[in-house]
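hey so u asked for the seq, here:
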Amino acid sequence: MNRSALVKTWLVALSSLALFSCTARVSHQALAGRYQARYPFGRETVTLAADGTYDQRIELDAATGHAAQLLTNEGRWTVVTRDGPWGASVRLERCLAVNDGAGRLRNGYEQALLGGCSHSITREYVLFGRVALGEEGSFPLIRND
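ran it, structure tokens below
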């Protein structure tokens, strides 16, 4: 097999694997665990329980121009699945959203979002590594238990 054909074969195989990994169904049992994100202003820990409840703990650093602060929250979580290449996400009801998407502390961070938060289910390194909630580059919650 020549080099060009070999490269094409690998590209097709990797594309198929990526599509399959994005569309696979994920259970509460498989996702239950502790996830952490590090931000320039602090750290967030979310613990997903197999019974569909979650605990959220946010520790803000004093060095960021804000007072050191500990925020806690709890609620229910669900897995939202979609057909197509975009896979599944975890939805946290009434969550605290502290990151503005650019690594800064979001205005109104101390109030729970009534609409909840949605985090896509990914892997730390695209197709392998620890399970992560959120997109790489946007400070995802990475499983660490």
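Residues 15-24 have pLDDT under 50 and may be disordered. The two ends are 44 Å apart (CA to CA).
lmk if thats what u needed
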